[in-house]
């Protein structure tokens, strides 16, 4: 069994090109990340199975001889559904397929090493932050502009009331959109910090809306919460990977508020308490 010592984080690089492995390792290792490597899909799956929770993120090429990256990704999702995966590829037309299976990021070759490193560190830090307890300076409180996107008016009213009227330990400004197109338009004026997005909506599903935000349409929020009634395990897993947190309807609103507070701390969306 492969033994991995604990460090700042562990990155599994899966690519059949030695130069790619060397360049990525050369930028990650000096900054405290341990890198382990696999030059084939089968070798990568063997490492994933042996090391399990010790790997923080997998960097996966798609075009490899033998078992290709798509097959590797499907196998990882089957046996390790929570494992973070970043795709690195020259096959630019595979993004939608990879996102439907579940990935953290799709990085197109050629890429800038520093940009790739930022993606790696962001994924690992997000995983660590999501598991950690959050404490706020007693002199500060959460403060954020939140866009709620849901075609059910009743759900929007309940969420808006809970965040603006029932939550007294911070300040949330709320705007509501009932369609994806309306959300994109409203975002340009409102400039939301966080979006709470339902997945199953008419005309444009929430996952498409989030992809369009991230592609540069509208004003993209700093983070997303996916709030949905999806029940199919594959759809739930795909939805979970679109946002900071997946919350299933109906839920205890305290869970939603806890997620929002964590996002505010992560992005420094805080203000001094009014005396």
How would you characterize this protein structure?
With 275 residues, the chain is α/β, with parallel strands linked by helices. The chain folds into 2 domains: 123 residues, 3-Layer(aba) Sandwich (Rossmann fold); 133 residues, Response regulator (Rossmann fold, 3-Layer(aba) Sandwich), CATH 3.40.50.2300. It is built from 10 helices and 11 strands. The strands form 2 sheets. Strands 6, 7, 8, 9, 10 and 11 form a 6-stranded mixed sheet that branches. It has a 5-stranded parallel sheet with strand order 2-1-3-4-5, with helices on both faces. The longest helix is centred in the middle third of the chain and has 19 residues. The N terminus is likely disordered.
Concise overview:
The chain is built from ten helices and eleven strands. The chain is α/β, with parallel strands linked by helices.
Kindly list the characteristics that best describe this protein.
alpha/beta; 10 helices; Rossmann fold; 275 residues; six-stranded mixed beta sheet; 2 domains; 11 strands
Shape annotation: globular
CATH superfamily of the largest domain: Response regulator
Order of helices and strands: EHEHEHEHEHEHEHEHEHEHE
The fraction of residues in strands falls at: 15-25%
CA distance, first residue to last residue: 58 Å
List the SSEs and their pairings.
Elements: E1 9-14, H1 18-28, E2 33-38, H2 41-51, E3 57-61, H3 69-79, E4 85-89, H4 95-101, E5 105-108, H5 113-131, E6 140-149, H6 153-166, E7 171-177, H7 180-190, E8 194-197, H8 206-214, E9 223-228, H9 233-240, E10 245-248, H10 253-266, E11 270-272
Parallel strand pairs: 1-2, 1-3, 3-4, 4-5, 6-7, 6-8, 8-9, 9-10
Antiparallel strand pairs: 6-11
Helix pairs in contact: 2-3, 7-8
């Amino acid at each position: 069994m492969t033994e991995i010592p604990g460090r700042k984080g562990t990155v599994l690089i899966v690519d059949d090109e030695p130069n790619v492995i060397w360049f990525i390792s050369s930028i990650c290792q000096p900054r405290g990340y341990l890198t382990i490597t696999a030059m084939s899909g089968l070798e990568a799956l063997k490492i994933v199975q042996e090391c399990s929770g010790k790997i923080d993120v997998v960097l996966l090429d798609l075009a490899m001889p033998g078992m290709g990256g798509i097959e590797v990704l499907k196998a990882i999702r089957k046996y390790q559904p929570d494992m973070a995966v970043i795709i690195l590829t020259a096959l630019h037309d595979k993004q939608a397929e990879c996102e439907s299976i579940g990935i953290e990021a799709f990085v197109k070759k050629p890429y800038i090493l520093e940009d790739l490193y930022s993606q790696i560190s962001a994924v690992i830090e997000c995983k660590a932050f999501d598991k950690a307890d959050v404490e706020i300076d007693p002199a500060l409180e959460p403060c954020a502009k939140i866009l709620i996107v849901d075609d059910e008016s009743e759900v929007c009213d309940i969420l808006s009331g809970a965040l603006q009227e029932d939550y007294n330990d911070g300040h949330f400004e709320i705007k509501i959109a009932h369609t994806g197109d309306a959300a994109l338009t409203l975002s340009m004026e409102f400039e939301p910090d966080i979006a709470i997005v339902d997945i199953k909506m008419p005309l444009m599903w929430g996952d498409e809306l989030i992809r369009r935000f991230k592609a540069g349409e509208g004003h993209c929020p700093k983070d997303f919460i996916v709030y949905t009634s999806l029940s199919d395990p594959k759809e739930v897993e795909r939805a979970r990977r679109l946002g900071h947190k997946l919350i299933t309807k109906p839920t205890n609103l305290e869970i939603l508020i806890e997620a929002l507070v964590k996002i505010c701390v992560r992005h420094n969306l805080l203000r001094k308490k009014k005396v």
